[in-house]
C-alpha cells in the first residue's frame, strides 16, 4: 500500500469506528509503526483543515483519534438526524457539567455544595446521556462515588482535552479590584476544599 491507500484506509477505519481509537490499534491494522501512523493522521487532519472540510479529526490525549463533523455544520447535521429524542441540555445540566469538568473527579455532594441545590436528578440524566461517568470512589468518609466527564463530553463540546476548556476568571490572570475580594475568594476556596 502507498501513502494514499493508507490514508484512505485510516479514513475508512475512523469513520466506521465512530469512537476515539488508539494509534496503536490503527497502526496494527495498517501494519505500520505508530510514528508513521501518527504522521498520516496529522497529514489527514491538516488536509481537512486546509480544505475547510465538513469533517475534522480530533485528537484525544496523546494517543487517540476520532473523525467528527465540524461544529460549524452542527445545525445542518441536526436537521438530517432525528434529534427530537435528544433534548437540549438544561442550564442546570450545563452548570453540573462545568463543575465536574473544572474540578474532576468530584462527588455529588461537592457538586451540590458548589451549586447550592440538590443535583441528583441532573447527575443521573448526564450519566444516562454518557456525558459523565463514575471515576471510582474518593478517599473521604463514606467513600462517595466520584464523577468525571467522558470523551463524549469532549466530542459534543468540540474539545480535544480538558486543557481546551476556557480559563476561569482567576486562571485568566484578571486582577482583583481590592485585597478584600482576594481574601474572600481564598476563604470560599478553603470552604470548598476537601479535607
Helix content range:
40-55%
Number of strands: 6
Measured between the Cα atoms of the first and last residue, the distance is 58 Å
Strand content range: 5-15%
Biased composition (Acidic residues): 179-195
Organism: Candidatus Gemmiger excrementigallinarum
InterPro entries: ScpB_csome_segregation, WH-like_DNA-bd_sf, WH_DNA-bd_sf
GO biological process, one term: cell division
Structure explained in plain terms:
There is one protein chain. This protein is α+β, with helices and mostly antiparallel strands and 195 residues long. It is 50% helix and 14% strand. The chain has helices at 3-17, 23-30, 34-50, 74-80, 91-103, 108-115, 120-129, 151-156, 179-192; strands spanning 21-22, 55-60, 64-69, 106-107, 132-137, 145-149. The strands form 2 sheets. A 3-stranded antiparallel beta sheet has the order 1-3-2. Strands 4-6-5 form a 3-stranded antiparallel beta sheet. Strand 2 and strand 3 form a beta hairpin. The chain is elongated. Residues 175-195 have low confidence and may be disordered.
Amino acid at each position: 500500500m502507498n501513502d494514499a491507500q493508507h490514508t484512505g484506509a485510516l479514513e475508512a477505519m475512523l469513520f466506521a469506528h465512530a469512537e476515539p481509537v488508539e494509534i496503536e490499534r490503527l497502526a496494527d491494522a495498517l501494519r505500520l509503526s505508530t510514528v508513521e501512523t501518527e504522521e498520516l493522521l496529522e497529514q489527514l487532519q491538516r488536509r481537512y483543515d486546509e480544505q475547510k472540510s465538513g469533517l475534522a479529526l480530533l485528537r484525544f490525549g496523546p494517543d487517540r483519534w476520532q473523525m467528527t463533523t465540524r461544529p460549524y455544520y452542527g445545525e445542518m447535521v441536526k436537521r438530517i438526524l432525528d434529534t427530537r429524542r435528544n433534548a437540549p441540555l438544561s442550564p442546570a445540566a450545563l452548570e453540573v457539567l462545568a463543575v465536574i469538568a473544572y474540578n474532576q473527579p468530584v462527588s455529588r455532594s461537592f457538586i451540590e455544595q458548589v451549586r447550592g441545590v440538590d443535583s441528583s436528578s441532573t447527575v443521573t440524566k448526564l450519566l444516562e446521556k454518557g456525558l459523565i461517568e463514575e471515576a471510582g470512589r474518593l478517599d473521604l468518609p463514606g467513600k462517595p462515588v466520584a464523577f468525571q466527564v467522558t470523551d463524549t463530553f469532549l466530542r459534543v463540546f468540540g474539545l480535544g482535552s480538558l486543557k481546551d476548556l476556557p480559563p476561569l476568571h482567576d486562571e485568566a490572570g484578571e486582577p482583583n479590584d481590592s485585597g478584600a475580594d482576594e481574601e474572600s475568594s481564598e476563604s470560599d476556596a478553603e470552604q470548598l476544599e476537601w479535607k
